[in-house]
Specification:
heterodimer; A: mainly beta; seven-stranded antiparallel beta sheet; four-stranded antiparallel beta sheet; B: mainly beta; Porin; two-stranded antiparallel sheet
C-alpha cells in the first residue's frame, strides 16, 4: 500500500464514529408524568431533571414556571379543592459514596408567590389517595410486588396519613401508620363524604384490600383501625378490590329522640358490594363516647342477602328510612333491601339483565319527591333501558316497564345527576359511534350519531355540560348535553386543528383576583403527539372554541433550556 | 455528553492528499539554513534535459489555505450548546500582502470562512442538539520577517457569523438562526517554506507552503435564542405557535487560530 493512501485511510477512520445517531438511543426522552390540570393552568413533571413545569395558558409567551421537585418523582396529582399540585418523589437510597436522598411530598401552589411546601416521608410510597375536599392525603404502597429494590425492607401495609389542617413539621419525616394485615396490601382507598364530618363523625378512610376492608379514623390516626374480613381466603373467594363498590349511609343516632351520649351512639352504615359475592356487606359503625367524652368506634358486620351476584347498588331514602336498591343481572332482578332490618323487601324481575342503576328523584305535583332509577345493561347487549319507580317497586313489586329502545347496546353510562341527565355511550367506550342523552325527569331520549368514530371522548361534567371528542384525527367535536339556550341543545360543533388530537382537558374558570378583568377565558387544553416529551398543546377558549383564537404551545418544556443542566 | 465534530478529519485527509506520495518523489530544494548557492555555480542546462524546480526565498504574497479556529468558550450556555468547552471551526482563508514598505515589513489582508457543526445528546432530555456555526471574517495583520522562514505578526479582524440551533430531529424538531458580529485581536507567528519555481519562465510563480499559528481574544455579540417550529401541519394558515426562548448565549472567548496553505 502506498504511504499516501495509508495516511488517508488512517485519517478517515474517525469517520466511522461520526454518525448522528443517539449514543443513548435506548434511554427514554423527556420522561414526563401525566399532565396535571390545575384550576387555571397545567403542569408537567419531568422525571430525569425532577422539574415541574407550570404553564399558564393566559401567558402569551408560554413560558412555564420551573419548580424543582424531589429526585425520582413518581406521582403528581391535583390536590382536590385547591389550586395546588401534590408531587411524591422517591428520592434515592444512595450508595457507599453517595448520600441518600429522602423521599418527599411536595405541594406546589399555582400562585408563584407561594413557596412550595416540602415534607419528608418515612417510606417510598407509590400510591396516593385524597379526600374529596383535599383535607386528607394518604400515601401508601400499592402492591407488595412493587420494585422496592432500593428500599430494602419495608412494610407494604405502612402508610402516611396527612391532615392539612394540622401544622406539619417540614423537617421531620411525616409519621407513618401500619395497618393490620390480613394477608393483603392496600389496593384502593376511599374517604367518607363531607356529610359524615358534618354530622359530627370523624372523617374516615376505607382501605380496600383483597377480601377485607380496613376502616381508619384519619382525624385521629393514633386510633386503632378496624379490619373487616369479607370472606375467608381459605374458602376460595377472591374479591377484586378494584371492582368493589362502597356506599356511605347517613349518620343517625341510635335513638333519634335522645341526645348523643355514652348510651346513645351515632350509627354510620357502610355498604360494600363485591361482584362475586351474593350478599351486600353492611358494616355498621357505632360511634360513641365514653364517660370523659372520648370518641370510640365499634363495628359490626351484617350480610344483606341479594340471592345473586350484585352488579349495581344505589342508596336512597324512602318515607320509611334508607333503602338499598341492588341489581342482579344474572337473575334479571332488582332487589330492594331495608338495611335497618337487613330485610329484603322486594325482588322485582327486570326485562333486561341490567347491571347499572342510576337513582334520581322526580318532583311530584304536590311538591314531594319520588325516588326513581334508570336501569341499564352494559354487559349483555340489551338495546333498551328501564325506568323504575322505586316506591312502587317496594310497595307492589311491580316494575314499570317502559321499554325505551336504544339504537344499539349501551357500553357505558355517564350520570350527570346535578344536570338531570345521563349519557348512554353506545358502542365500545374507547371509540364510540353514537350516544344517547336521557333527560331523567321526563325520560326524554335524544340520540346523537357520529358519522365517524368519536374518539378521545371527554365529558365535561360541570356546566356547560359538554361532550368533547375527536373525529377524523384532527377534528375537535363537541356537543352541548344540556339546553342552556334555545336551539343550542345537542347541536354538534367542531373545530379543525392542525395536528392529531391525543387528549382533551378542560380547565376551571380562572381565579382572577382582579374583578375589573373578568374576561379571562376558560381554557380547553388539547394534547397532540409528543414523542420527545417537549410539550405540544393547543389552547382554545373552552366556552367558544374557535380556530382563529387557538394557540399552540410547542416545545415549551424547552424554555430556558440553556440555563438548565449546563456542563 | 457526546460531541461529534467530523469536519477536522475530512480536512486533514484532504491535506494528506496534497502531500507528496513519498520522500523519493519529492523534488530537491535547498534547506533554509544551507549555504545559498550562487546561480552562476549551477551547471548550464542541457537542452536535452527537463528543467527542475528552483527554490527561492522570495516573498510569497498570496496564500490559499485551510484554517482551524479553536475557541475556549467562557459562557456556560455556549458550552452547553456547543457540547464542549473548546469547539474547533475549520474553513478556508485567502491572504494577500497589500503593502510591503521594505524587505522585512508587510501588511497582509486575509479573508476567511470557518464553520463547525456539532451535535450533542443531553443527559436530561436525551434529545439531539445540533449547532452549526459559520463565520466570515476580514483581517489585517502587520508582519515583520524576523527570519526568512519565521515572521511574527499582529492581527485585527472583524466579521459576521450565524448560528443555527436545532433541537430534536425530524419533523418535530425546533430550530433558530441567529446572526452575530465578531471582532478579534491576536498575535502569532507565520512559518514558510522556500518557494519553488517549477519551470524557468519570467511569469512562473514561486510556490511554497505557509502556515500561521495565532492566539487572541474574540469579542462577539451574544444572542437570545428562541426555538421555532412548524409542528407537522400542511395547512396554509396554521394555528400560531409561540417561539420558545431557550436562553442567552455569549460568544466572546479566547481563540487559537492555525492556518496552513499554499503560498505564491
Amino acid at each position: 500500500m502506498r504511504p499516501r493512501f495509508l495516511v488517508l485511510s488512517l485519517l478517515l477512520v474517525p469517520h466511522a464514529g461520526c454518525d448522528s445517531s443517539n449514543p443513548r438511543f435506548w434511554q427514554p426522552k423527556n420522561d414526563l408524568l401525566p399532565m396535571v390540570a390545575l384550576d387555571d393552568r397545567i403542569a408537567y413533571v419531568e422525571k430525569n431533571s425532577h422539574t415541574a413545569y407550570l404553564l399558564d395558558p393566559a401567558d402569551a409567551s408560554f413560558k412555564p414556571r420551573f419548580v424543582t421537585v424531589g429526585k425520582a418523582p413518581i406521582a403528581a396529582v391535583k390536590r382536590n379543592g385547591s389550586n395546588q399540585m401534590l408531587v411524591v418523589s422517591n428520592g434515592d437510597s444512595g450508595s457507599a459514596g453517595v448520600a441518600p436522598i429522602q423521599p418527599q411530598l411536595q405541594i406546589i401552589d399555582a400562585n408563584p408567590n407561594v413557596v412550595p411546601a416540602v415534607y419528608a416521608l418515612a417510606g417510598r410510597f407509590d400510591g396516593l389517595a385524597q379526600s374529596v375536599d383535599g383535607r386528607f392525603v394518604v400515601l401508601y404502597h400499592t402492591s407488595s410486588t412493587q420494585d422496592a429494590s432500593d428500599t430494602g425492607l419495608y412494610n407494604p401495609n405502612e402508610m402516611t396519613i396527612i391532615d392539612f389542617t394540622q401544622s406539619l413539621d417540614p423537617k421531620a419525616p411525616l409519621p407513618t401508620k401500619s395497618i393490620r394485615s390480613l394477608g393483603g396490601v392496600p389496593a384502593r382507598i376511599e374517604f367518607s363524604p363531607p356529610s359524615v364530618a358534618q354530622a359530627g363523625v370523624p372523617s374516615l378512610a376505607v382501605v380496600l384490600s383483597q377480601n377485607y376492608v380496613t376502616i381508619m379514623d384519619v382525624e385521629n390516626t393514633e386510633r386503632t383501625e378496624i379490619s373487616v374480613p369479607l370472606c375467608a381466603q381459605s374458602a376460595g373467594c377472591a374479591y377484586d378490590p378494584d371492582t368493589i363498590q362502597i356506599l356511605f349511609g347517613s349518620v343517625d343516632l341510635l335513638d333519634p329522640k335522645s341526645p348523643f351520649g355514652p348510651t346513645n351512639p351515632k350509627i354510620l352504615n357502610i355498604y360494600v358490594r363485591a361482584e362475586t359475592s351474593k350478599d351486600i356487606f353492611q358494616i355498621a359503625l357505632s360511634i360513641g363516647t365514653d364517660a370523659v367524652g372520648t370518641i370510640d368506634f365499634n363495628a359490626s358486620l351484617s350480610l344483606l342477602s341479594v340471592g345473586a351476584n350484585p352488579a349495581g347498588m344505589a342508596l336512597y331514602v324512602s318515607n320509611d328510612g334508607p333503602r338499598l336498591a341492588v341489581l342482579a343481572p344474572t337473575s334479571q332482578s332488582l332487589v330492594i333491601i331495608n338495611p335497618s332490618t337487613s330485610q329484603t323487601l322486594r325482588i322485582a324481575a327486570t326485562s333486561i339483565p341490567a347491571n347499572v342503576i342510576v337513582p334520581f328523584t322526580v318532583a311530584n305535583s304536590d311538591g314531594t319527591q319520588r325516588n326513581e332509577a334508570m336501569l341499564v345493561d352494559t354487559l349483555y347487549g340489551s338495546t333498551s333501558v328501564l325506568f323504575a319507580d322505586l316506591g312502587v317497586v317496594e310497595t307492589s313489586g311491580g316494575l314499570e316497564i317502559k321499554d325505551s329502545p336504544l339504537r344499539a347496546a349501551a357500553g357505558d353510562v355517564w350520570p350527570l345527576l346535578d344536570q338531570g341527565i345521563a349519557v348512554l355511550v353506545l358502542g365500545k367506550p374507547t371509540a364510540i359511534s353514537s350516544f344517547t342523552v336521557v333527560e331523567l325527569s321526563t325520560r326524554r331520549i335524544v340520540d346523537i350519531t357520529a358519522s365517524s368514530t368519536f374518539a378521545r371522548r371527554y365529558l365535561e361534567a360541570r356546566p356547560p355540560s359538554r361532550l368533547w371528542g375527536v373525529t377524523d384525527g384532527t377534528k375537535l367535536t363537541y356537543v352541548n348535553l344540556v339546553a342552556r339556550k334555545a336551539g343550542t341543545t345537542f347541536a354538534p360543533s367542531f373545530v379543525w386543528l392542525d395536528q392529531e388530537i391525543t387528549s382533551i382537558q378542560a380547565l376551571d374558570p380562572p381565579l382572577d383576583a382582579n374583578p375589573t378583568n373578568p374576561q379571562k377565558p376558560r381554557y380547553l387544553v388539547v394534547g397532540h403527539n409528543d414523542p420527545d416529551g417537549i410539550g405540544n398543546l393547543t389552547f382554545l377558549d373552552a366556552d367558544t372554541p374557535d380556530r382563529s383564537t387557538a394557540r399552540t404551545a410547542y416545545g415549551f418544556l424547552f424554555s430556558n433550556y440553556l440555563d438548565r443542566g449546563q456542563p | 455528553m457526546k460531541t461529534t465534530i467530523c469536519a477536522a478529519p475530512t480536512l486533514l485527509a484532504a491535506v494528506a492528499l496534497l502531500l507528496p506520495s513519498s520522500p523519493a518523489s519529492a523534488q530537491p530544494y535547498d534547506w533554509p539554513y544551507a549555504t545559498r548557492k550562487s546561480p552562476q555555480a549551477r551547471p548550464a542546462p542541457q537542452p536535452t534535459q527537463t528543467e527542475g524546480p528552483v527554490a527561492s526565498w522570495e516573498p510569497l504574497r498570496f496564500q490559499v489555505g485551510l484554517e482551524t479556529r479553536t475557541i475556549w468558550l467562557l459562557d456556560d450556555a455556549a458550552k452547553r450548546l456547543a457540547g464542549n468547552h473548546a469547539p474547533t471551526n475549520v474553513g478556508l482563508s485567502l491572504q494577500a500582502d497589500v503593502l510591503r514598505p521594505n524587505d522585512k515589513l508587510a501588511a497582509r489582508l486575509d479573508l476567511g470562512w470557518v464553520t463547525t457543526s456539532s451535535s450533542t445528546f443531553q443527559d436530561t432530555t436525551n434529545l439531539e442538539e445540533r449547532l452549526e456555526t459559520n463565520v466570515i471574517s476580514l483581517g489585517l495583520s502587520a508582519r515583520y520577517d524576523l527570519l526568512r522562514w519565521l515572521t511574527p505578526y499582529a492581527r485585527l479582524a472583524g466579521g459576521v457569523g450565524w448560528d443555527k440551533v436545532t433541537v430534536g430531529s425530524g419533523a418535530s424538531s425546533l430550530h433558530d438562526r441567529q446572526v452575530f458580529g465578531q471582532g478579534s485581536a491576536g498575535a502569532g507567528i507565520s512559518l514558510r517554506s522556500p518557494g519553488l519555481r517549477f519551470w524557468q519562465s519570467p511569469s512562473a510563480p514561486t510556490v511554497g507552503v505557509m502556515g500561521q499559528i495565532e492566539g487572541g481574544y474574540a469579542l462577539a455579540s451574544g444572542s437570545d435564542f428562541s426555538l421555532k417550529s412548524s409542528p407537522g401541519t400542511s395547512t396554509t394558515n396554521p394555528i400560531p405557535t409561540s417561539p420558545v426562548a431557550i436562553g442567552h448565549v455569549g460568544r466572546s472567548a479566547p481563540y487559537l487560530r492555525i492556518a496552513l496553505g499554499i503560498a505564491f
